[in-house]
Amino acid sequence: MDKNFDITGATKLTCLLGNPVSHSISPAMHNASFQKLGINCVYLAFPVDEAHFERAIDGLITLGAAGWNCTMPLKRLMYDRVDTLSDSALLSGAVNTVVNRDGQLFGDNTDGYGFLQSMRDAGFSCEGKHAVLLGSGGAAAAILAQAALDGTAFIDVFARSASASTKLIAEEIQRIHARCDCRIRLFDLEDNTSLRHCLDEADVLINASSVGMAPRTDASLIPDPAFFHPGLVVGDVIYNPRETLLLRTAKEAGCHTFNGMYMLLHQGAKAFERWTGQAMPVEYIRELYFC
């Protein structure tokens, strides 16, 4: 990395908005990429909550920022604010990446792409397959949209019926059915009979919930190892721990497994390409921050 990279009067701004953001490695990842490729741009992180969202966006437009990322709790607010949407953002109902085109805002959602690219890295694909998706939050919505766009044939979504996010997932399913051939069914996460039946038929299982994340590493949404069958591909958005109870149990049952460690890398790479028109040096960044 070039330690003498200079900020000049022509340096473009990109950034991350959300709350909290101090823990994010996105600034390090993007700034290392800008420096590696000699792009005169910087990436900063700004703590912004819902109350200050509109003022922050107005300020970025006025300052001519090239683009920005949004994390929680701003993704759905950003969806309503942009002028045009990518297919993945339109279907998921959330925006995590914005390109500022002379004051006209283009919104994308690269989270689903990031996870499915990490799946491809592990040697697997959802295309033409039957997938089971656990969860109804932002990660689940993004993965559901991208999986449908990528040609997944069937997706069974299991979500908590009392959750407000499940209503949003139900609305997303309607949007997907209007635009894609993917068949999607929504089940209650408490319905273990349907979960067992769907997994018997499935090629892929994806946990898009936070269940199993540190410090609660003893938790899993699959109640019995008998729900797995050999050859099932099991992925988890969680990467702390790197092998969740879900993945460990699945591996012991003869399943192929992968975690969400590289989801952030690939969603960031897609955003980087949106802003710069160039490919992020993914392998370089992987060695710097993900190994």
Structure description:
- The protein has helices at 26-37, 53-63, 75-81, 87-92, 111-121, 138-149, 164-179, 192-201, 245-252, 263-276, 282-289; strands spanning 12-18, 41-47, 67-70, 84-85, 97-101, 104-108, 130-134, 154-159, 183-188, 204-207, 233-236, 256-258.
- The chain is globular.
- Helix 6 (138-149) packs parallel to helix 7 (164-179).
- It has 291 residues and is an alpha/beta fold.
- The strands form two sheets. Strands 2-1-3-5-6-4 form a six-stranded mixed β-sheet, sandwiched between helices. Strands 9-8-7-10-11-12 form a six-stranded parallel β-sheet, sandwiched between helices.
Structure keywords:
291 residues; alpha/beta; 6-stranded mixed sheet; 20% strand; globular
Task: Explain briefly what this protein structure is.
This protein is an alpha/beta fold and 291 residues long.
